[in-house]
Amino acid sequence: MPAAALGERVRIVGAGPTGALLAILLRRRGFGVTIYESRPDPRGAPPESGRSINLALADRGIAALRRVGVFAGVFDRLVPMSGRLIHDLRGTTSLQPYGMRPDEVIYSISRHGLGQALLDLAIRVHGVEVHFEHRLEAVDFAAGVAHLRDLRRERIETVPMRPLLACDGAGSRLRREMQAAGLIAASEQALDHGYKELSIPGGAGGEYRMLKNALHIWPRGEHMLIALPNDDASFTATLFLPNTGAVSFASLSGPAQIESFLTENFPDVVPLMPDRIAEFLTHPTGFLGTVYADPWAVGGQAAIIGDAAHAIVPFHGQGMNCCLEDCLEFDACLAGRTDWENCFREFHARRKPNTDAIASMALENYLEMRSHVADAGFRLRSALALELERRFPQRFIPRYSMVMFHHEIPYATALSRGRVQARLLEELTAGGAALADVDFARAEREILGQLEPLATIRSSVTNE
Length: 464
Description:
Shape: globular
CATH architecture of the domain at 3-48 and 58-76 and 110-189 and 289-366: 3-Layer(bba) Sandwich
Oligomer: single chain
Number of strands: 20
């Protein structure tokens, strides 16, 4: 679509991965693009300490990175993870594969590294104009302008909003301005748990001190520790705990308490975390919550995209994947529209059912990760799900696999089919202890009767 049909220049707030990818796609359609970012230029700068939950890059995010030609450039930084390695209290481990096929893996990558790669591509290759240390302060919807503070010169700059696209994260200033003006309904539903980042350095010879190609999980019911591998042989560990209560971030206030808690709950990994006490005491406790907003735009003036519109908890590894997929969906909406208002409306209609679905699945996955993965019944149902996929690949794909390895299947479809499949798995494993106890003839009848072939289901992005 010609840029002149919608206006020559688009302004984006936020130069993270979502804003950078969206800018690249807009430039490809001929638009001039200016990004305003409150931080200094992150290229070449170290990541912010204590707040970097590693990204689990999966098929949806990979599809977006391939679209703009950046995937090959970041591939060497990726560490493939073939499954969850579960650590029990005795230090015994068991690997639960993510998928049925060897190529069904997810990749660990630092949020900082991916953001740098996309931003550099946007600036150097696509000519995106970026103003760093410029923070959105306020908007005037009646006048159609946005006010930004130049933090270096301490002055306010006023720019036209039509259109202003906010990719400024879960705490989006534009979303709050829309809400305050009564133009949208929005809420932030906090989880009663938080997180704290810890680190596991590599060995003296540069070797990994735990299994490299796995996401490590220490499930402990009401809390858990996870660790994702980095390409320098270290692991980024994240402790998830209730914010208040008998065992919580509020109750662990001193070094002795912290050491006792970590040693009791995670004895096999404590020796690998030499800075655990200092990191626990100095790293901030991160907020976990879900953002809901409706609608996502104000006329043709402004729209919120990515976490600004629908931030989710990180327990399905889909937060950034979902945001990158947003960009592809937005680009698809641009293809058939001649005005911004209709583009925004179509984007919201196509995308919101799917973002609501992944928000729900992410919350469900927290209970699964911190508790269910250690349960024998869960392991049997998971094994059966993979066996049913092997036998009926056109009709039965585990919900986790639909989300992580099949970008052509919308999130909402994965949620609805997943509910049917979960009920089938419960019924087929009732009273059984192993796959040999499953009635596969019954399984075939139920699957053929309740699940239509997946070949008929494709996302709008795939068809674009």
